[in-house]
Amino acid sequence: MGVALLSLFLGGFILNFIMQAASLNMDIGSVFAWISQYYWLYISGSIFFFFVLVLFAAIIPNVYSGALIAFLACFILAVAHFKKLGTTGEPLFPWDLLQVKNAKGMSKITKGMISPLEVAVVIILIAALVYLIYKLPKVKVQLPLRFTMVIVSGIMISCFIQMVGGQNVLATSMKYQSIPWNQKVNYSQNGFVYAFTGNLLQDLMDKPEGYSQEAITAIAKKYSGLPDNGTGNAPAEQPNIMFIMDEAFFDPTRLPTYTFSEDPLQFIHQVQDSTPSGYMLSPEFGGNTANIEFEALTGLSMYFLKDGSIPYQQRLVKMSSLPSIVSILKERGYQTKALHPFDETFYNRNRVYPILGFDQFTSEKELQNADRFTSNGYISDMFAVKEAVSELNVSDKPTFLHLVTMQNHFPFTKGLNGPNTITVDGVKPEYKDELETYVHDTKLTDDALAYLSEELKNIKRPTVVVFWGDHLPALSARIYTQAGWDDNPRLKHETKLLYMANFDIGKQSVGTLSPAWLGPTVFQLSGQKMPPYYRLLEKIKAEIPGLNKHVLIGSSGVIPELNAKQQELLDDYKMVEYDLLEGKQYAANLLF
Questions:
Q1: 167 exposed, middle or buried (CB, 10 Å; 0-12, 13-18, 19+)?
Q2: What is the 3-state secondary structure (H, E, C) of 260-318?
Q3: How far apart are CA 528 and CA 546, in angstroms?
């Protein structure tokens, strides 16, 4: 038994080394340099993994079998961590593991991220694991000792999590410093085990100084007295409002150094000067679609939340209700419908949507005969738009319809959405198929919007549509590097934003907007009465139309630093956001 425990002890150190290598782009020299500087973090983190191995060794009767299974599971976490960092620039978070329940869907959307060689390595490792389990001595532990091992390991793991999450003096004495505002640095500096376990107990945001019912009441009074600028263009009857959040959609013709055989966005470029249009400043890059959706539906900003947060999974599923554009319109007599042609459980949408106020949610399982370009492809944007139009046509009441598409999701595999129709020159040969496939996909989306524009003319009720891309696609990093975008966060977060309607909404440019401002903007364009909360957002939008952790955009360009007026507005906004997400929700009655 002593030899077995020694093996598990060494296994803990090896696992921690592998985890840190994944955090540092598999640079072994950097791992040794980190260990030399943060040796206590490495030692204590390795002991944490030792107790994890001991726990599994005790639960599964054969000591080596249990430990090897735990080792393989942790190794798979390291691979996922490394791949996520390389694709989106973000590490693996505890709440990412909630997507395990969507294993089938995850295997589809991550297809192409793992090379055949890497698949072969995993298969070899699993085979080696089976072989080792078969060959290693069958060390079985008697029940009393197994029980003791489980209790001791469980206590040690729990104490470690509490120590890290509470930033105990012991943790800080070992040079641990929680850095939730920059999770990539958090993982690389503190090590995977400290950063990951520290996130387990993290709230979405810290409590603002001075938070109280009186503070929220004072904010509500301040903004309730502002004029309502949303009723100037009101049509004769309540209009339909349709949100289209298009997966991974942006304007690829903005990429310099590349030339295209034809304009993939002919319709969008043709109409963008005759209707309100501009850019949406996404809080994300390459993924985390739910966070853009969260901003657009609630008007709450990711700017104030800790780095890496996913509110749908961390907070909203625990709530009974949260004010949103959905609930506002529902109270005004609207039908509220959501349409997402994919797995309804992704990001807990099937649980979150009712909390936001949706009456109906149509997902992939209700769309059995949906059009796909190939059997392995996602449901097409054209089909999704047609389904949305059908929903509006059958409704006898004003309707808010929120569509989240999937057609343009990773992987960008040639032929997945039919043969490529546009060639791209100036791109390196190894990325040519990938970029041309993505550009072809955007052309298909442009065709769907052209179809929608014509269909709007046939919808009897006044209808306004807000179309935007959720984030830039997770194309190979060198495609953006060649375009010179690595040091330009604004360009890497701007997606296309377009408003369309079957009544006059003007044609002024909307500039660059954060998704949190889409609600008040569409209210203003469609003549909806503004609740006090939207008047607060309108004030902030006037000062900071682009509110993003990576870049702040004002009316005349990038804001190098906030002035006193802007900071006061953001302080009020942060107070309300904390109240609604983590506080007592006083604002739900006062500002909506």
A1: middle
A2: ECCCCCHHHHHHCCCCCEEEEECCCCCCCHHHHHHHHHHCCCHHHCCCCCCHHHHCHHH
A3: 23
- For residue 515, which of 482, 500, 537, 485 has the smallest C-alpha distance? 537
Q: Say how many C-beta atoms besides its own lie within 10 A of residue 469's C-beta.
A: 27
**Burial of 367: CB neighbours in 10 Å, binned 0-12, 13-18, 19+:** middle
**Cβ atoms of residues 138 and 62 within 8 Å:** yes
The amino acid that residue 72 corresponds to is L
Q: Retrieve residue 236's tokens.
A: 């004769």
| Angle, alpha carbons 507-513-519 (nearest 5°) | 80
Give me the residue label for tokens 């440019």: 509
**DSSP-based three-state secondary structure for 463:** strand
Full DSSP string of 56-124: HHHHSSBHHHHHHHHHHHHHHHHHHHHHHHHHHS----GGGGGGGGGHHHHHHHTTTSS-HHHHHHHHH
Tally of CB atoms within 10 A around 213: 13
**Among the ranges given (52-66, 344-358, 455-469), the one the predictor scored with the smallest mean pLDDT:** 52-66
State the sign of the Cα–Cα–Cα–Cα dihedral 338, 339, 340, 343: positive
Cα separation, 376 vs 188, in Å, equals 37
Q: Is 402 helix (H, G, I), strand (E, B) or coil?
A: strand
Structure tokens at 364: 């992939």
| Rounded Cα distance, 525 and 542, in Å | 15
Q: Give which of 320, 334, 267, 326 is closest to 293, Cα–Cα.
A: 326
> With a threshold of 0.85, does the pTM exceed it?
no
Sequence length of the chain is 592
pLDDT digits (tens, 9 = 90+) for 81-105: 888 787 767 788 887 776 665 555 5
Q: What is the tally of helices (H) and strands (E) in the chain?
A: 23, 13
Q: What is the pLDDT of residues 53-64, one digit of tens each?
A: 888 888 876 777
> For residue 138, what pLDDT is reported?
67
User: In terms of Cα–Cα distance, which of 20, 339, 397, 11 is closest to 186?
Assistant: 20
Q: Give the list of residues 6+ apart from residue 81 with CB closer than 8 angstroms, or none.
A: 19, 22, 23, 91, 92, 187, 192
